[in-house]
Design goal:
Length: 167
C-alpha cells in the first residue's frame, strides 16, 4: 500500500552514516562507515567532524547540525564517540545508543582486564582489541540501523568465541 511505501522510504532515510571513536588530541581510533564514502574524503571529513565536536564546550548540546547530516557525540574520559546520522534520525535514540555501546564495551572488557581498572584505562585497553569492538558494533548496528540493544545478546558471539579459545 501507499502508506507502507512511505514508511519504508522514511525508514531508509533514517540511518546512521558513521561512528567514530576519537581521543582528545583529535586522532581517530576507530571509524566505521555504514554508507559509502570515498577513502580520500574520509580523512578530511573525519578531521572536520572531530574539530567541530572537540571545539564545543561541555555546556553545549551534544547534537550538532553539520553539512548534510547531524552529529551526536558523547565524551567518556579522554575518548569521544561521534555518530553521524541523517537529519530524520532521532538524536536521543542515538545518544542512548552511544551510552549502551560504551556500557557493552565496559562490560566485555571488565571481564578481560582487571575489574579495578578505571573506565579511562579500560578505554585505552579497548583500543588494542579493535576486532572485538567491531564485532560488538556488528551486533548492534547493521546497514546503518540499530538492530540490537540487549547487552547479553550483543556479547553472545564474543562469549562463544572466548569459550572456544579457552576450551
Amino acid at each position: 500500500s501507499a502508506v507502507d511505501d512511505v514508511t519504508l522510504q522514511l525508514d531508509s532515510c533514517r540511518m546512521i552514516k558513521f561512528l567514530l571513536m576519537v581521543n582528545q588530541q583529535g586522532q581517530t581510533r576507530l571509524s566505521r562507515y555504514f554508507e559509502p564514502v570515498e577513502l580520500n574524503r574520509r580523512a578530511a571529513q573525519e578531521a572536520a567532524v572531530v574539530r567541530c565536536c572537540l571545539s564545543r564546550n561541555k555546556e553545549q548540546c551534544s547534537f550538532v547540525e553539520y553539512q548534510d547530516f547531524k552529529l551526536v557525540y558523547r565524551q567518556y574520559a579522554a575518548l569521544y564517540v561521534v555518530v553521524g546520522v541523517s537529519h530524520t534520525e532521532n538524536e536521543l535514540s542515538i545518544f542512548e545508543l552511544i551510552q549502551n555501546f560504551v556500557e557493552v564495551l565496559d562490560r566485555y572488557f571488565s571481564r578481560e582486564t582487571n575489574v579495578g581498572f578505571s573506565l579511562t584505562r579500560r578505554l585505552n585497553q579497548i583500543m588494542f582489541h579493535l576486532d572485538s569492538v567491531h564485532i560488538i558494533l556488528d551486533e548492534m548496528i547493521q546497514n546503518g540501523h540499530i538492530v540490537e540493544t540487549n547487552k547479553n545478546r550483543i556479547l553472545a558471539p564474543l562469549t562463544a568465541i572466548n569459550k572456544m579459545a579457552d576450551g
